[in-house]
Amino acid sequence: MSLDLSFSDEQTALAGTVRALCAAHRPATGDDARFAVPDARWSELGSLGLLGLTTPEVGGGALDLVVVHGELGRAGWVGPLIGTVLASSVLEPDDRAAVVAGDAIVSVGDADLLPWGAIATCFVRLVDGHAWTARPVGDVIPCATMAGEPWARGTLELVDDLGPAEGAIALANLAAAAYLAGAADHLLELATTYARDRRQFGQPIGSFQAVAHPLADRALAIHAATTLTKIAANALDGSDPDGSALCASARLSAARAALDTAFVVHQTLGAIGYTTEMGAGAMTLRIRQVSLTPPSLAAARSEVLAGRGL
């Protein structure tokens, strides 16, 4: 049995819309990577319905989520994307409305480290597979992050049990996988373009095996992660019982592919990779930050192992 992993005409058009939005805002480099409150870029995502893509109000599917977050990843888009996907799947309609409109910033965590907690107005806590609304107890103390995101440390008091979060966690893992694969693909494109243009000893450096072979390996890893992400999305859309585990697998695959790609790309680019003009340094920081965003990679590994009886 074959599985069609191509995007529909509507999804291709959706990708074009997001790509145009990203090109207009260019959020991946230099000072453009800052996130202000209110943030016009974030509000525009909300106004287009892209922050609540899989909610009943919008009615998009998991593969639509992959389309959107893949393009956002290629642009290194800044914002609490993964947490918003999860929160929009568990919050009650009244609370959800402000989040998906881009008017409320959500922090989703499974410990006392609060992603985007320094500016969040809505807190969701993951506890033993359930999602809870929560509120800070005492001070929320901002902490530094590699990508400059306004994370914080603080203690959360559980308020309302929103129920099992398996489906929401699967969607968040899927969005993270798509974002990371897209970001890795963008980095690889920067490196391969550079390897074609940069010449040493009278020939492009991409003609040397020590440069070309690692880039080829990264292209294979990114393609594998992207394919697995599409398979996982189709499984979710088809209510496959293995859908959640496949989303966890896609998240792990994409995170490894993206992190390894960042390493190889910076070996290829050398010092120029950290210049503002190149943008590879900023993208690498985004990859690392998103890979650490809850739901955690440890939880994804546990889900994959559970499918193997471990």
Word description of this protein:
It contains ten helices and seven strands. With 310 residues, it is an alpha+beta fold. It folds into three domains: 9-84; 104-164, no CATH class; 167-306, Up-down Bundle (Butyryl-CoA Dehydrogenase, subunit A, domain 3). A five-stranded mixed beta sheet has the order 1-3-4-5-2, with helices on one face. A two-stranded antiparallel sheet has the order 6-7. Helix content is 54%, strand content 14%. Mean pLDDT is 92; it is low at 28-33. It has helices at residues 9-25, 40-47, 62-75, 81-90, 93-100, 166-197, 209-237, 243-269, 280-291, 297-306, and strands at residues 106-109, 113-114, 122-127, 130-143, 151-164, 199-200, 203-204.
Structural key phrases:
54% helix, 5-stranded mixed sheet, Butyryl-CoA Dehydrogenase, subunit A, domain 3, 310 residues, 14% strand, two-stranded antiparallel ribbon, alpha+beta
What is the number of domains? 3
The gross shape turns out to be: globular
Terminal residue distance: 30 Å
Work out the radius of gyration.
19 Å
Write the SSE topology:
Blueprint: H1 9-25, H2 40-47, H3 62-75, H4 81-90, H5 93-100, E1 106-109, E2 113-114, E3 122-127, E4 130-143, E5 151-164, H6 166-197, E6 199-200, E7 203-204, H7 209-237, H8 243-269, H9 280-291, H10 297-306
Parallel strand pairs: 1-3
Antiparallel strand pairs: 2-5, 3-4, 4-5, 6-7
